[in-house]
Design a protein that fits this description.
By secondary structure, the protein is mainly alpha-helical. Helix 6 packs antiparallel against helix 12. The longest helix is centred in the C-terminal third of the chain and has 29 residues. The chain folds into two domains: about 180 residues, Growth Hormone, Chain: A (Up-down Bundle); about 190 residues, MFS general substrate transporter like domains (Growth Hormone, Chain: A, Up-down Bundle), CATH 1.20.1250. It has 17 helices and no strands.
Length: about 400
């Protein structure tokens, strides 16, 4: 008697890479103003501080709109909604590239933040629906790859390009990429129906699903600690004489992040909790290294590499954990992750700024460390979170 085994179908790489490109555009659109602030503020006739608020209002738009917009569009066909969100980026980046009015630019940035919140909530659920159950973790890792690629390669490249052709043309290129992505998604991403009225759970019930709240708590504390350090990495590097090498330190962090994402994609389907514990532990070690040995340039680079290794897969891990815990309410749970993530980004910048006025910059890692330890303990102790469900 001959026994046959049925192998899993190949991953739909074209569609998953289209989703990853959507994430890439989201991060690039959000963070690019930070690299072009002097030119942007000069063209808009505002201070650099005011130009910097184009990043803040983007985060506000994502945090405020993600949950209600995801709930309001739960019944919409998924691909139509995905295309609408991408088209929103094309509109917002076109206005940003051509506007000479600061209020109009801020309105465009708010629109970009709103559609970003919607897009982030869609990506995880879409990637999981495109593959079989044993492939969900790897599919998520591919779909989330746009985040570390944008941070490690996209933002430095975009900043360099802006220096060559101007910041407006750089935002114009983001529009072209968004338009190309519309066609890519239409050709390679399958159409899925929205949730029926009977399948939709109200927000309060989603929050009460076992495992959802711990994942949100880990997201909030981990990302808060990360942004507390990452936002103010330039002033932190000044005392050790690396103020002129911020790009090299961030490149070290970014390359290590890609390695962390690769490891995550390989093991996530069977080692979800172990990976999240390892991410928290590596981040804690890196933060302790910066706190104790921040005066050594060589050890700063080592700590940045360990930090990136621990951080690279976190977006994939928390979104996978949220989706596993929430089940059919995955899109709403993802919108809660988006909200928590953006609250942490804004809070990290605010808290770090306040600490810089009250304490030496070298104290920042000591403030971040307790937050990471809370994330580590929450991950380790949560019974229903960071557990892969059997289909």
């Amino acid at each position: 008697m001959t026994q046959t085994t049925q192998s899993a179908p190949p991953l739909p790489l074209a569609g998953l890479l289209a989703l990853a490109t959507g994430g890439f555009i989201t991060v690039m659109t959000e963070a690019l103003p930070a690299g072009v602030l002097p030119a942007m503020s000069a063209d808009l006739a505002v201070s650099e501080s005011a130009a910097g608020q184009t990043v803040t209002i983007y985060a506000i738009g994502s945090a405020v709109a993600a949950v209600p917009l995801t709930a309001a569009t739960a019944g919409w066909p998924r691909r139509r909604l995905l295309l609408l969100a991408i088209a929103g980026f094309a509109v917002a980046n076109t206005v940003t590239a051509t506007s000479t009015s600061y209020p109009l630019t801020m309105a465009a940035r708010l629109l970009a933040g709103v559609v970003a919140g919607l897009l982030w909530a869609l990506l995880a659920g879409y990637a999981r629906r495109m593959v079989s159950a044993p492939q969900r973790g790897r599919a998520m890792a591919i779909a989330m790859a746009g985040i570390p690629v944008a941070l490690s390669v996209g933002i430095p490249a975009g900043t360099f390009l802006a220096g060559l052709v101007g910041w407006r043309w750089t935002f114009g290129i983001m529009t072209v990429l968004s338009l190309a992505l519309l066609g890519w998604v239409a050709l390679t991403v399958p159409a899925f129906p929205g949730a029926s009225r009977q399948e939709r759970l109200p927000l309060r019930r989603v929050l009460r699903i076992p495992g959802v709240a711990p994942v949100l708590a880990v997201t909030l504390t981990f990302v808060l600690a990360h942004n507390l350090l990452y936002t103010y990495i330039a002033p932190f590097l000044e005392p050790v004489g690396l103020g002129h090498r911020v790009d090299a330190v961030l490149l070290t962090f970014g390359v290590a992040s890609l390695v962390g994402l690769l490891v995550t994609g390989t093991l996530i389907d069977t080692r979800l909790r172990h990976l999240m514990v390892a991410s928290c532990a590596l981040f804690a070690v890196a933060t302790l290294g910066l706190a104790l040995f921040g005066g050594s340039a060589a050890l700063v680079y080592v700590s940045a590499a360990v930090w990136g290794l621990g951080t690279g897969g976190v977006a994939t891990l928390v979104q996978t954990a949220s989706a596993e815990a929430a089940g059919d309410a995955g899109d709403v749970a993802q919108s809660l992750i988006v909200t928590s993530w953006n609250i942490a980004i804004g809070s990290g910048a605010l808290l770090g700024g306040a600490l810089l006025t009250a304490t030496p910059v070298t104290a920042l890692p000591w403030w971040a460390l307790p937050l990471i330890l809370i994330a580590l303990l929450t991950t380790a102790r949560a019974r229903h979170a960071f557990v892969t469900r059997t289909p």
